[in-house]
Design goal:
Strand content: 15-25%
Shape: globular
Largest sheet: 7 strands, mixed
Radius of gyration: 20 Å
CATH class of the largest domain: Alpha Beta
Number of domains: 2
CATH superfamily of the largest domain: Gcn5-related N-acetyltransferase (GNAT)
CATH architecture of the largest domain: 3-Layer(aba) Sandwich
CATH topology of the largest domain: Aminopeptidase
Number of strands: 13
Number of helices: 10
């Protein structure tokens, strides 16, 4: 089993080249983040598989690297699976439940072992209608990895982030991902267009038997043509044609009915593609220095309150 792309050696290389220190110890890749005015660091390890962690060398590594704690952010174990109790037992023996999650705790996973007819039958009725409508109106989805296609993708992605007021990555950040993962053909850019005008574009990452959908954007122009619905469906079919086992939609809300959730809008959109809505187990912290760990969490909580008040 490959594990999650965020725990891959290539992702670690990307973070390192982008300027974040990365350490590998105990079958875990973690990044180091400086705690201001302390000379200490906080470790961050997203999507870890707790069942493969070797805690003895990991703890030593954290001590050697002056880390106060290591945040296991949303471990890659789905609630309700046979791995849940095993993973939770491991984490409880060595860690404490974290007061925060950085990554989305929900997700949609599309099982690509199903036939195309089965996948189609699980689409929301309105989504199926929108997909057929887009096709009927002449919207086409194409694959293009050129610089021009990437520039257009980023234009739509950043414009969507600004329009919908969510955090989006810099062009330099995604460009570095493209540079490193593109070497082994792990980057796929799909675009939905009509008469040469691109209306939506998705940036996909291939790793192991999974195709991930981390970034996407769309234009407000010709919004009624439902290009985003079509590109999502074509991305799923693309993943199936290229023999991936899972289409991972990267993140979603835990409660799909909570309109106040920051992930509500795109979760509602993703839900209509018929994937399985999953919720991951709690995040945990491996604490090395309890005093500084508690002080850091208190300061971090205050920081987020201030940031929310300024929005």
């Amino acid at each position: 089993m490959e594990g999650h792309i965020l725990q891959s050696q290539l992702w670690a290389k990307f973070k390192e080249e982008f300027g974040t220190p990365v350490v590998n110890a105990g079958n875990v890749w973690y990044t180091k983040h400086a705690i201001p005015f302390s000379g200490k660091y906080y470790g961050y390890a997203p999507r870890v598989d707790p069942l493969v962690v070797d805690f003895v060398p990991l703890v030593k590594s954290l001590e050697d690297n002056n880390c106060v704690a290591l945040h296991f952010d949303v471990p890659n174990v789905v609630k309700g699976t046979k791995e849940e109790s095993l993973a939770t037992d491991v984490l409880k023996r060595h860690c404490v439940v974290s007061p925060r999650d950085e990554f989305a705790k929900g997700n949609f996973l599309v099982d690509l072992s199903q036939s195309e007819d089965e996948l189609n039958s699980k689409l929301h009725t309105k989504q199926r209608y929108n997909i057929n409508y887009a096709r009927k109106k002449g919207v086409l989805v194409t694959e293009d990895h050129s610089d021009k296609a990437f520039d257009k993708f980023y234009e739509l992605y950043s414009a969507t982030g600004k329009r919908q007021k969510y955090y989006f990555r810099s062009k330099k950040y995604i460009g570095k991902i493209r540079e490193l993962f593109g070497v082994d053909d792990q980057v796929r850019i799909l675009s939905a267009e009509i008469d040469g005008k691109i209306l939506a574009s998705w940036f996909l990452l291939a790793y192991g038997d999974t195709l991930y959908y981390p970034y996407g954007g769309s234009s407000e122009d010709f919004k009624n043509l439902q290009a985003s619905c079509l590109i999502g469906w074509e991305a799923i079919l693309y993943a199936k044609r290229h023999h991936f086992k899972t289409f991972d939609m990267w993140g979603a809300a835990v409660d799909l009915d909570d309109v106040t959730d920051q992930y509500y809008g795109f979760s509602n959109f993703k839900a209509k593609f018929g994937g399985k809505h999953v919720i991951y187990i709690d995040s945990y912290d491996l604490v090395i220095n309890a005093g500084l760990y508690n002080l850091f969490n208190t300061a971090n909580k205050l920081r987020w309150k201030i940031l929310k008040a300024l929005r």
